[in-house]
Each structure stands twice: as C-alpha cells, then as structure tokens.
C-alpha cells in the first residue's frame, strides 16, 4: 500500500478565469412567436407534468403528474388529445399523516408520480411520492385504470427505495428484462440514497448504506441499459454527490457514473441481498483554465451504429466566476467509461483517512466485471471496499462540446440526423431552468446554437424533454402541462443566405426556398447547405438566385408603434434595424455619407434621423455575418417633387421616446421654414394654395394618384432613383410613408404587398425583431 500523501486536485486548483467570448443563440424566439408554434396540453387542476413514457408504437404519451396519470393521443402531429386519465390521490389518512410530519398540504402532501414504466404489453408500473409515503401500482392499459384487488381498491405496493418521499428529490428508474432498476432516496429524511432492483422473480438487490457506496446527498439524474450494445449486460446510473476522495477545503460535488451487472444475484454469506457488482467513477467535464463543471444535471444516451454509445451530459458549475454561472455539455463514449471501470480501483487508507490508488494484487475474474458464475467470498469482500475507480472518465476530445455562460441547462436530448451531403449530425436540445430551449449542433468550427425558444410565460425549469425522432417532435413537460414543438421550421429562413447561415442540419436551400430535407423525396444533390461553416458564398449567388424579401407582417414585443399625428408634428424619424441574428454585425449606410449631422445611431442600431432638407436619401442597414453581407432594412426618405417644393415637412411618426433637444432645434428650424413658406405661398402662389387647401382627408387612392412615381425620387432630383436591391423589383413590399406637403400630413401611404405591411406596428421593426432577417425590408418616408 502506498504511504499516505496528499492527493492532488489538479484541475480544481487552477482557477485562472479567462472569460472567453460567450456562445450566443443565433435566433431567439419569444413565446407566442408564430414562427415557432407550440402545441400545448394542460388540464385544469392538474400540475407537475414530471414523468414521461412514450408507448412503443409512438402513438401515446403517458404522463405522470400530481395526483394524476394521463394518456395523451399524439398520433396527429398537430394536436395533443386526452385519451385517458387516472386520478390517483393519497388517501385522506396519508395526507393527515403527511401534514402531521410538518409537510405542507399545499405543496407537498400529494402523490407526485415519479416512475412510469412499461412492464409488459398490457401493463404499466407506476410509483408516486404519495404524501411522503412512496407507493406503487399497476396500470391496466386495456381500460387505463389502476389494477384493483378483490374489494375494488387499487392494488398498492410499498414504494420505499423505488421512489423518493420528497417531491424535491430527483430519482431515476428503468425497466430491463421485466426488472425495475431505480436510483432514489430511501428515507423520509432524504439522506440515504439507494440503487435497487425489484420486480421480476429474482432477489431484490440494494446498495449497502452502511458501506457508504453512495454519499448521503447523491442525486440521480438518469439511468440506461443499452440493449444492442457491447454492454447490454450492464445498467448505468448517473448522479451527483459530495466527493470524499479529495482533500478540499469545502464541500466538493462531483458527477458520477455507476454501473451494476444484470446478472448480479447478490452474495451468499457476504453481501447478501446487496449488489456484488456495484462500481462508480467520476465524470470530468472541464475546459482548461476554467472552473470545472462538476454538477451533472441530466444525461442522454445516443446508441451508435457500431454497438457503442455516447452519453451527452449537461453540467453546471458548483462555483461561479463573477456573475457567471455557466453550463457545459460533455459527451462521454461508452468506451471511455468502460476503460475507467476496467482500470485501477481506489481504496480508503484507514490510517490517514485518504483515498488512494489500490495497488494490491488483482483477482481473476475481475471483481465487478459481470463475469458469470458465483464469486468467491474473497472477491465479494474486496468489492465491499473497492467500489470507486481510480481513473475518471474524460469527455471526447478532452473538452466540453459546448459551453454557455449565464445559463443553467437542466435537460438534454439529442437527435442524430443526416445533412444533404449525407454527413451525420447530432442535434442537441437543451432545456434551461428559466424555460428556454436551445437547439445546437457541433460542427467543424465548434458548437453553434441555432436557435433559442422561450417556452413559458413565466420563467420555470423544464422538467422533461422527450424527442420522437419519427415524428420530428419534441415534447416538453413543465408545471402546467405538456408542450410539443417541431424540431425545426425551415420556412423562417426566407433567403438563401439565411438558410445557410442558420447551419440547421434539417434545412437546406432547394434553389427556391429553404426546406426541411427530412420531408424531401427528390434528388437533393444541388441543394445548398453548409452545416460545418455556414458560409453562403458562392452558392447563393449562383444561378441568379435572388434573395427573397420577406412578406410577413408580424408583431414584435418591442416594436414601436407608429401613430399618425396631426399636429403636433415631430420631425424625427426612427429607422429600426432589425437584428435577428445575434451572430451578425449591423451597420448603416446612406446615400450622402457626409450629411450625418442629424443622425444618431442608438444602442439597438436604430437610426434616428432629424429630418432636414439634406437628409433625404436612402438609408440601408446591412448585416455582416460570417463574411456574408446583406441588407436587412432599407428606407427612403424623400422630399416631394422638386427643390423648392418643400413647403412644410410633415412627419408622421410619433416617438415613444423623447428627443427633446433635437425636437426643439428642429421645431425652431421648421417654424422658420414654415414662416418663409407661408409668406412665399401667400404672395406668390396664392391661387395654388387655395386649391390645395381643398384637398382633404387621407384617401389612399388620392395620394396614390397624385404622388405616384414621385416618392422614390430623392430630393436632389437630378439623380437617378436610389439604389435598390434586386429583390425590390421582384416582390419586395415597398412601404412608403409619403406626403407632398401640409395638406397630406395625415396620410400614410402604403404600396406593394399590403399583407407585408402593418402600419400600426411598423412592420419593419416587428417582422425582423422576431427572428427573421428577411432581405430588403424596404420603406420610404416622405417629407
Ligand atoms: C413556420 O414559420 C412560418 C413563417 O414564420 C410560419 O408562418 C409558420 O406558421 C411556422 N410553422 C410552424 C409549424 O411553426
Ligand atoms: C391545508 O390546511 C389548511 C389548514 O388545515 C386548510 O385551510 C387548507 O384548505 C388545506 N389546503 C388543502 C389544499 O388541502
Ligand atoms: C403483465 O404484468 C401484469 C402485472 O404483473 C400481469 O398481471 C400480466 O399478466 C402481464 N401480462 C402479460 C401479457 O404478461
Ligand atoms: C379493466 O380491465 C380489466 C381486465 O382487462 C378488468 O379486470 C378490470 O375490472 C377493468 N376495470 C374497470 C374499472 O373496468
Ligand atoms: C442526383 O442528381 C445528380 C446530378 O444532378 C446525379 O449525379 C445523381 O446520380 C442523382 N442522384 C440520384 C439518387 O438520383
Ligand atoms: C399586433 O398587435 C396589435 C396590438 O398591439 C394587435 O391588435 C394585432 O392584432 C397584432 N397583430 C398580429 C398580426 O398579431
Ligand atoms: C450600402 O452599401 C452597399 C454595399 O456595401 C451598397 O451596395 C449600397 O448601395 C449602399 N447603400 C447606400 C444607400 O449607399
Ligand atoms: C463584428 O465586428 C467586430 C468588431 O468590428 C469584429 O471583430 C467581428 O469579427 C465582427 N463579426 C462579424 C460576424 O462580422
């Protein structure tokens, strides 16, 4: 045995915090955004939709909630229908007991369903906390009721050791060959975790609490058996617990994977009714120079075609650096885990109470290796103290797949899909504790968060994520119900550039539109997609593919409202630059680069124009993303027909914010102009003025007839029409806010595709802020 020495905790002590640039979701959708529609199910009075079970045929989703189990019909992708419901409350006696034990009858003394597994074709097995008295029951699928005894009462079983007492405690359960493997808290106090195997005909097996194979605070997040893998004879448990093997000044949480063998039947004299194959090891998820991500939140296992598997885990940091509490996704191969379990053991040196590498003699067959045949008492005695492996499991490439600051991921699920080129991509869906869903892909250049979707009105943790690959739908469980959301919506990418910049493996540009490749049956060899790098050039420019302008009018939560004011007039125009992509740079350019005296660019890139004679012209906001430049908004500020015709600039935009200084300045200028104009008009154009004053109202047709063809001409009329993108000639909605003079001060003039214009809500702002940087949002403001 090695002498006592200090074990080192290398990674933990290197805490130089280098804050790298954070990964940003490219698009963000707020709840209710029509681009990412959510279908929801909820039932009055039913809360806490915590536990999911998908039926084998994929047509039914069983959900365990509070005091209720529901069966949901999900074969129609557009709806979720209630198919069956089992109310399952604790008995009044149990509730009274629960309250007597100082638990809340408002939040805790209910039956929170925590286990829902398919026992056989006709029955489910379910367990709930049952008012701090864990209880299990069978569900008959024929009529979707609890199996009853002769007296008609539900046939209940003791659930201690299978299901937690306290609804706040995490647990995991998996059914393998008709036996139920569970990881949970075994007692009311919540300080005795347990991994056990029940049901079936064999001996019930448990972890030994006296030998402290698990630390008192172990919290289970997932368990797996991989039926067609190299390791089908084992069951894996993922959990977090306080580590004992490190000398550390404070409580150190570590993430663990433990495994047991399916063929374990317990010991004879030693380890009777206990696991004889229980081993555990540390999972390491860290990036160099940063706090390690020690706290595992959830794991998803993705079986590989070669018989292996990859475990995707979401981790958070136990400590925070500054204000950052970060999350990471680490992927561990089954091989790496097996390697750690085949490596050296650790053992506790009782003299100095330190965990050290075991360097004694090895045994054959190796203890804990699922070898068949009874184990010797010697081997079993060895297993009592050698349950912790020396080596930790490191992630693939020795680093996290993805690191996100200021976010806590609580759930993950992964979908493997093929791109147009046939390459396999693993699309990761992560749920946060604030109710956001992140969809990410890892490609050559690193991790990329394709989109972020706000799922709930009020921030709350996502309780469950379940992906149906066949349906292409993700189910989300939360406190008030179940949501379903399609894995993608390719039609939000209306231009070739956006379709490719998105780097969404499900979407490709078929040379006309962005389409979901999983739904395409034709030859896709000339479709455009670049998941690796997201670089639109040169494909998008080829074959005369024209960027399409967006043609939808949508509301934005932050969209400023335009109202018609008549008078007072405000000579300040705010031109929003929709910044849908968080990965792009946005910049303004305008016809007369010199005349920027009256221009202010706000933090959100809105261009504020104080309208003067020389501000007329074209204003364009351009996005630059990944080296690809494209316009996202285009405005034309024109000034009537000829020079000198500018009589009284009437601006129609009411500001939500105040620009008092500009307002005063311009008001003074305008008053002077107006005075001169009125004087001129009175003396020189008396008749004309008289005629004009008869023009009243805001009729569109009238404005149309009069100003048609003129509004697009800039003030310095000698110039040709202002530069326009190709999309304008095709189907660009061209919004104009035009007036010829005082007489039309109350008119807003709209041309082109009226469906693309929402005059009340400034369509330019709203459409784009909602996640689409459609090409060539175009508007003109006339003065
Ligand atoms: C996809 O996005 C388009 C455009 O925003 C929208 O009209 C459509 O309803 C969306 N479809 C879904 C299923 O969310
Ligand atoms: C909880 O107990 C209080 C007092 O005993 C009672 O007023 C209240 O209605 C109970 N709440 C529920 C949900 O049973
Ligand atoms: C399924 O399990 C239930 C409960 O153990 C049992 O009563 C039933 O006979 C089983 N059904 C089949 C088809 O094995
Ligand atoms: C449900 O069906 C089973 C047989 O499949 C039957 O024994 C039981 O009585 C039925 N329960 C009810 C409530 O109808
Ligand atoms: C698809 O079209 C390309 C050329 O356009 C051709 O080379 C390829 O064989 C086609 N693939 C299939 C599966 O038809
Ligand atoms: C836009 O918002 C306004 C109110 O702010 C509402 O009346 C209108 O129906 C909304 N339009 C759409 C398309 O949601
Ligand atoms: C803005 O810049 C782009 C290219 O950089 C150019 O094509 C466009 O004409 C410019 N717009 C204006 C109004 O100058
Ligand atoms: C945005 O601008 C910054 C600073 O000018 C630059 O470092 C960055 O690379 C630009 N990003 C893109 C996507 O162009």
From TrEMBL:
Domain Ig-like: 547-638
Record flagged with keyword Hydrolase: no
Residue ranges, compositional bias (Polar residues): 760-769
Gene designation per UniProt: SEMA4A
Family according to the record: Belongs to the semaphorin family.
Keywords noted in UniProt: Disulfide bond, Glycoprotein, Membrane, Signal, Transmembrane, Transmembrane helix
Gene Ontology biological-process entries: axon guidance; neural crest cell migration; positive regulation of cell migration; semaphorin-plexin signaling pathway
SMART domains linked: PSI, Sema
Transmembrane segments: 659-683
Renumbered residue ranges of the record's region Disordered: 532-553, 701-734, 758-783
Keyword Transferase belongs to the record: no
Top-level taxon of the source organism: Eukaryota
Species, as recorded: Pogona vitticeps (central bearded dragon)
Entries under InterPro entries matching the protein: Ig-like_dom, Ig-like_fold, Plexin_repeat, PSI, Sema4F_C, Semap_dom, Semap_dom_sf, Semaphorin
GO molecular function: chemorepellent activity; semaphorin receptor binding
Protein name listed in UniProt: Semaphorin-4A
